[in-house]
Amino acid sequence: MRIVLVAGEASGDQLGAGLIGALRRLCPQARFAGVAGPAMRAAGCEAWFAADELAVMGLAEVLRHLPRLAGLRRTLLRRLLAEPPDVYVGIDAPDFNLRIEPVLRRAGVRTVHYVSPSVWAWRRGRVRLLRAACDRVLCLLPFEAPFLEAAGVPATFVGHPLADLIPMENDRDAARRALGLGAGPVVGLLPGSRLGEVTRLGAPFLEAAAILARDWPDMQFMAPMASREVRAAFEAGLARHPGTPPLRLVDGRAREVMAASDGLLLASGTATLEAALVGRPMVVAYRFAPLTYWLARTLRLVDVKFFSLPNLLADAALVPELLQSEVTGPRLAAELAAILRSPQRQATLAARFAELHRALRQDASATAARATLEVAGRP
């Protein structure tokens, strides 16, 4: 059996690696190839291209990279149509995969899309594209499958792999010992994994840290860096803010920093879900590239009450969300300080986060593998 997987970015690479491992257990003779990152390659996937070639986010960024992405898509399609796989699994990267999947499906190739696009939030017209493109959509969030099924798109809720991976209880003291932290309160700064995010959020995060340090002189600050490029950009921002309190940068180890922290300032994205699964209070911020934000507002592309995953999953304002001009150092500091000063609010958040964790813990990779084999017509 031959399975082609196409992943974009590090998160898709991790999902793909988990899926490959689960598929190998169910179908040992399966062979895997496609667009893969290091985790998928380590799991046994032959990489035709690197996953980070698809790592583009935001309307403005996508427009800038369209010619390169179109060329990659044409190359892939020629290869896939010449040697059709038993099943094609597009992992996230919807603007890329949803242009390949309908062509393959018309040619008789079974198609699975792993991670539902956020059609419930914006660009709802993509539901029609999903109907044409996919034999099955594998959903990470519980409200997505009913939404898609009602629109005529076959969908299965598989749970979220992070909920399987992260334990229900996370030892704060053990994480602090592992990171060499002292006894004072700890705040983690996670301004994003992309250069654009770090460039737009770094300064207000550092300003917030300086304000918090005035109220808590023994407060410790840590910032996990997603890559060398991100670290260089963040260090450049530090040099422009000499009033920043002592701040320790670590390479990777984001989950350890989350577990060690009393509170977090972080960019919107999967990190907010990870923080909720670890069970830590947070303030979520995001600044889009100006053109992306202008297009989204002008074209009324967004239709959602919340933008952070904890709030979307709970359908309630569990954690503060700050967007665009709201993202200032004083506002970030005030929102996080209000949580840190309220043990009752912290306890409520911990209980709600535990509920979300239990709902998402579904053995996602194994469930996704079974659904993929069903689509492929294999028992």
Descriptors:
379 residues, alpha/beta, Rossmann fold, 2 domains, 7-stranded parallel β-sheet, 17 helices, 17% strand
- Intertermini distance: 12 Å
| Tally of helical runs | 17
Output the radius of gyration: 21 Å
Q: How would you write the strand order of the largest sheet?
A: 3-2-1-4-5-6-7
CATH superfamily of the largest domain: Glycogen Phosphorylase B
**How many beta strands in the DSSP annotation?**
13
Write down the domain tally: 2
Tell the overall outline: elongated
CATH third-tier fold name of the largest domain:
Rossmann fold
Residue share in helix = 40-55%
Unreliable spans are: none
Structural class: alpha/beta
Average residue pLDDT: 90
The CATH architecture of the largest domain is 3-Layer(aba) Sandwich
Q: Main beta sheet: strand number and arrangement?
A: 7 strands, parallel
Strand percentage, roughly? 15-25%
CATH domain class name of the largest domain? Alpha Beta
Summarize, please.
The protein is an alpha/beta fold. It has helices at residues 9-26, 38-42, 59-82, 94-106, 126-133, 144-150, 161-165, 172-179, 195-215, 228-239, 254-260, 270-278, 290-298, 309-314, 329-340, 343-360, 364-376; strands at residues 2-7, 31-36, 45-50, 87-91, 110-114, 136-139, 155-157, 186-190, 220-225, 247-251, 263-267, 282-286, 321-323. The chain starts with a strand and ends with a helix.
